[in-house]
Design goal:
Blueprint (H helix, E strand, L loop, with lengths): L6 H18 L3 E6 L2 H4 L1 H16 L3 E6 L2 H10 L6 E2 L2 E2 L3 H25 L4 E5 L6 E5 L8 E6 L2 H8 L3 E5 L1 E3 L5 E3 L2 H12 L3 E6 L17 E3 H9 L7 H13 L4 E6 L5 H7 L5 E5 L2
Parallel strand pairs: 1-2, 1-11, 2-8, 5-8, 11-13, 12-14
Antiparallel strand pairs: 3-4, 6-7, 9-10, 13-14
Helix pairs in contact: 4-5, 7-9
Length: about 290
């Protein structure tokens, strides 16, 4: 289509989006952002454009981000070898300092800056601000990797009420002031639940839940919580998709209307999922 799109076609596209705009106006949606969509610069620009566009049409967007590749990159520069147990990063005292620098510093402020340059109004906070994410040690073997014990959502609500897009880095803390590295998907599920979000978007590096993991055409567009348990038993939901789907189920149990696992590598996937019939991934819902 490129530049050949006519003004009439543009107008048609906008009018077709109207029911969706109406549906989401004033509602809260949480976007969990990470993976490939975060590393590829042109995709990053498009994700930020999508978020600002939704914000401009009255959707209350909350952006929750990770930053695993950037953490590994800085660790390598500092001569520190990343270590993983069951897919989770072992986080000693030195590593949690690096995590804090990268997530609450570089990554968070870069995203805030990008949203601002696209015309949005954003404010970056970490899970330590206002004790947004309280945590405790998840597993002694992992060091400062946190299990969420409580979410104090007021700072996020305050920012939304003042018209900001909150940008949240997933670091938690305990009563003693220790910082913890929190899994981004888990943090997003808890935050979306505490906000009673209309929808949680989980951006990943695959198309969604696939019947055959090697064939994108076998995408399952919609599953219920009960079907998710069944697909897991059958081994269709396996590997890295298990914790993702568990987070979706957790979010729904906490009051989120539905969760979409979607391909962050597809340009404008957030807009396709929000403002068209098509959708762009697998929707997980209660029933």
């Amino acid at each position: 289509m490129g530049n050949q799109i006519s003004n009439l076609q543009r107008a048609e596209v906008l009018t077709q989006a109207l029911p969706y705009i109406r549906r989401y106006n004033g509602k809260v949606v949480v976007v969990k952002y990470g993976g490939n969509a975060m590393i590829n610069d042109s995709l990053k620009q498009q994700v930020m454009e999508d978020i600002v566009l939704l914000w401009l049409i009255g959707v209350k967007v909350v952006l929750v981000h990770g930053g695993g590749p950037e953490i590994s990159e800085l660790m390598a520069k500092l001569g520190k070898e990343p270590e993983f147990v069951d897919g989770l990063r072992v986080t000693d005292k030195e590593t949690i300092d690096i995590v804090q620098m990268v997530l609450a510093g570089k990554v968070n402020k870069t995203l805030v800056n990008l949203l601002e340059t696209k015309g949005g109004k954003a404010m970056g906070i970490s899970g330590m601000d206002g004790r947004l994410i309280e945590a405790e040690i998840k597993d002694e073997r992992l060091g400062y990797v946190g299990k969420v014990t409580k979410v104090n959502i007021d700072p996020v609500v305050d920012l939304l009420e003042k018209g900001y897009i909150p940008v949240i880095s997933t670091i938690g803390c305990d009563k003693e002031g220790n910082a913890y590295n929190i899994n981004g998907d888990t943090a997003a599920a808890y935050i979306a639940g505490a906000l009673g979000a209309e929808r949680l978007f989980m951006m990943t590096d695959i198309a969604g839940v696939l019947r055959d993991k090697d064939d994108p055409s076998t995408l399952i567009p919609e599953i219920t919580v009960a079907q998710a348990a069944e697909l897991r038993k059958q081994g269709i939901i396996s590997g890295g998709m298990i914790p993702k789907v568990d987070c979706c189920v957790e979010a729904i149990a906490k009051g989120v209307s539905n969760v979409v696992i979607m391909d962050g590598r597809v340009p404008h996937s957030i807009l396709m999922e929000t403002l068209t019939d098509e959708g762009a991934g697998t929707m997980v819902k209660l029933s």
